[in-house]
UniProtKB/TrEMBL annotation:
This is tRNA pseudouridine synthase B. It is an enzyme of class 5 (isomerase). Signal peptide: none annotated. Responsible for synthesis of pseudouridine from uracil-55 in the psi GC loop of transfer RNAs. It comes from the Bacteria.
Length: 302
């Protein structure tokens, strides 16, 4: 079984679940999970966890992300992107400076109402299921943050803007496009979307499914698999003394005197350590509790 994380380039036409299903066939293993849904018409970076790496799915999903999107002004759709039913078309009266000001005004904290066409659940049902039945239900705004937003191109003839958005988890870029259009009183929707970064994973180092299959056949795919402990380069490495390995394997608390090394002073940002057994096998992440003189299991990767 392959363990670790692979940076997949999700192509248009595939759902994130399609990517996982195809990888199961290519790699001949079931234990695979993705780290953040991309719509079928979107493309770009999709980190996929393999084997014991699937325990990282929740951690990687929480990472910030960067997208390149094409905003089309003057058109409003039910899905907030170009694939949806057109609800309204209006002329774009705003000039270039006004459009730029509206786009940049969304930088910073932002209370965003999730779209009806999303996988969020309300009372046990996916919003998109309700939307397909012609139902619209109230949704509470969620706090997201646009860390930065850049306009790469603004075409006043086609009323399209190419924007690059660095944002927190849970941000819907098509909703951002919709909201920019609402602010300009002409409506707007998302025409194209590419995720160019997810956490530390970048577009330039991603592999398409056919490339992954080819490298797997050539037995060189391991060069592109990031090992689980490598996802925590800032965490201090510690080793459990041989006689206490059973406690480690059982996920028990450990006293610091049961370790081979003394743990240095750690900042609040890196209060966790990578823990290994005597054979240098990575076992998991433990949280250091200096006041109690012990470390406690945070995430096990046995």
């Amino acid at each position: 079984m392959i363990n670790g994380i692979i940076n997949v380039y999700k192509e248009k036409g595939y759902t994130s679940h399609d990517v996982v299903a195809k990888l199961r066939g290519i790699l001949k293993q079931k234990k695979i999970g993705h780290t953040g849904t991309l719509d079928p018409d979107a493309e770009g970076v999709l980190p996929v966890c393999l084997g014991s790496g699937t325990k990282l799915c929740d951690i990687l999903t929480d990472k910030s992300k960067t997208y390149r999107a094409v905003l089309l002004l003057g058109t409003t759709t039910d899905t907030q992107d170009i694939t949806g039913k057109v609800l309204a078309e209006k002329p774009v009266a705003a000039g270039k400076e006004e459009i730029l000001h509206a786009i940049y005004s969304f930088q910073g904290p932002y209370a965003q109402i999730p779209p009806m066409y999303s996988a969020l659940k309300i009372e046990g049902r996916r919003l998109y299921e309700l939307a397909r039945e012609g139902k619209e239900v109230p949704r509470e705004a969620r706090n997201v943050e646009i860390h930065s937003i850049t306009v790469e191109e603004l075409n006043m003839e086609t009323k399209e803007a190419v924007i690059v958005v660095d944002c927190s988890k849970g941000t819907y870029i098509r909703t951002l496009c919709h909201d920019i259009g609402e602010k300009l009183l002409c409506g707007g929707c998302m025409k194209e979307l590419t995720r160019i970064r997810s956490g530390e994973f970048e577009l330039s180092k991603s592999l398409k499914l056919e490339e992954i299959e080819e490298k797997y056949r050539e037995d060189v795919l391991s060069e592109h698999i990031i090992q689980v402990p490598d996802m925590f380069p800032d965490y201090t490495k510690v080793t459990v003394r041989k006689e206490f390995e059973k406690q480690l394997y059982n996920g028990n608390f450990l006293n610091i005197d049961q370790l081979e090394q003394k743990i240095p002073d750690l900042s609040d940002m890196t209060d966790k350590v990578r823990i290994y057994d005597g054979e240098n096998n990575f076992i998991g992440i433990y949280k250091y509790c200096p006041d109690e003189g012990m470390i406690k299991p945070y995430k096990m990767f046995l």
